[in-house]
Amino acid sequence: MNRVDTHQSPAAVPMVTFEDVTKRFGGTGNQPAFTALDGVDLVVPRGAISGIIGRSGAGKSTLIRLVNGLEKATSGRVVVDGVEVGGLPETGLRDLRRQVGMIFQHFNLLSSRTAFDNVALPLEIAGMDRKAIRDRVAPLLELVGLGDKSGRYPAELSGGQKQRIGIARALATEPKLLLSDEATSALDPETTQSILELLKTINRDLGLTVLLITHEMEVVKTIASQVAVIDKGKIVENGRTFDIFTAPKHETTQSLLSAAIGAKLPEWIRPEPKTEPAPGDRALVRLIFFGETAFQPLTARLVAEIGPDVNILAGAIDEIAGEPYGSLVVSYPADPDTLQRASRFYQQTGLTTEVLGYGA
Ligand SMILES: Nc1ncnc2c1ncn2[C@@H]1O[C@H](COP(=O)(O)OP(=O)(O)OP(=O)(O)O)[C@@H](O)[C@H]1O
């Protein structure tokens, strides 16, 4: 066995660990090798929902395919539940794939099989008898809310229902880990929300670890407690979703998130304001408030402290990974007195602020 020796308690052992993982494609004949993953170190905690975000071609699919052995690392180690994937023989890979379920953007259901028979497929492959299969599949169809669609064919189901069947099929072998490859990208926003709710329920009630890759920031914001950002095959940022979404450091993260968390200025506030105030200018400032402060009546206090000439230009209160987060774009006179009052107020309240510029 390739079991990794660890003295940690089982709960503390991560579900997946990538250790200095590199993946190259090609490199035969005159073709130069293409490095899709470059020295990836990443820990996927047990029991959590973790997300990996990145632009198209960043390496997300390659990364996730290493987890169930669909791809093999060129160098480095991928360890799933204490077992190193790279050295597994075919029988070990089969065992691994029973423990790692996967759902896909286009559902990958067999059109000639009913909903029931699609869910039953991995159990048939595992050699389970018909009665045991019935006992396993029926409650799964109930779990995903499709107990009454058992005899329907994929063509008779909506996109959301197809994905529910995909989820039931992924759960059939009672996996410890669920991989989600853009599972909501083909669905409308409302259906996306219902599928995300289902994934959240499964994570909570079955204790299943979920690792999802997506280019939809909204998905990560809604359900993932952890997120890693991948750019050109490298992990450029990694941590709690709330921390990364509220204070993205890497340029790629900032760019991916700019639309998702209301950090972008409304079109009408442009052109970009000046960086130094001229007499008579106003300061354009973004206020970011987290946790407790998100619920305090800050706008009233802002006006009371800074003066009545405060304009609120844009604002949103949102939730990131279950935590409240708000942002307000305000403007007020950029004279030294007002700026000093504002600065004192921000210090007292602990508000995070960003001066966007100055303008008339
Ligand atoms: N089998 C392969 N042979 C050669 N190059 C590959 C292969 N698989 C992936 N690549 C390349 O590796 C890079 C990363 O691909 P990958 O599919 O992992 O990206 P991604 O982030 O999932 O992108 P997308 O969101 O568009 O699916 C891409 O440039 C891709 O062309």
Count the beta strands: 14
Number of helices: 11
Q: How many domain modules?
A: 2
The largest sheet is:
6 strands, mixed
Q: What proportion of the residues is helical, as a percent range?
A: 25-40%
Evaluate the radius of gyration.
Answer: 25 Å
Structural class assignment = alpha/beta
Return the CATH topology of the largest domain.
Rossmann fold
CATH class descriptor name of the largest domain? Alpha Beta
Q: How much of the polypeptide forms β-strand, as a percent range?
A: 25-35%
Strand order across the biggest sheet? 6-7-8-3-9-10
* Element-by-element helix/strand order: EEEHEEHEHHHEHEHEEHHEHEEHE
Averaged pLDDT, please?
Answer: 89
Low-confidence segments = none
List the bound ligands.
Answer: adenosine-5'-triphosphate
Shape summary: elongated
CATH superfamily of the largest domain: P-loop containing nucleotide triphosphate hydrolases
Architecture per CATH nomenclature, i.e. the level-2 architecture of the largest domain: 3-Layer(aba) Sandwich
Distance between the termini: 70 Å
InterPro entries: AAA+_ATPase, ABC_transporter-like_ATP-bd, ABC_transporter-like_CS, ACT-like_dom_sf, MetN_ABC, MetN_ABC_transporter-like, NIL_domain, P-loop_NTPase
Family: Belongs to the ABC transporter superfamily.
Domain ABC transporter: 16-257
GO molecular function: ATP binding
Give the gist of this structure.
This is Methionine ABC transporter ATP-binding protein. The protein has about 350 residues and is of the alpha/beta class.
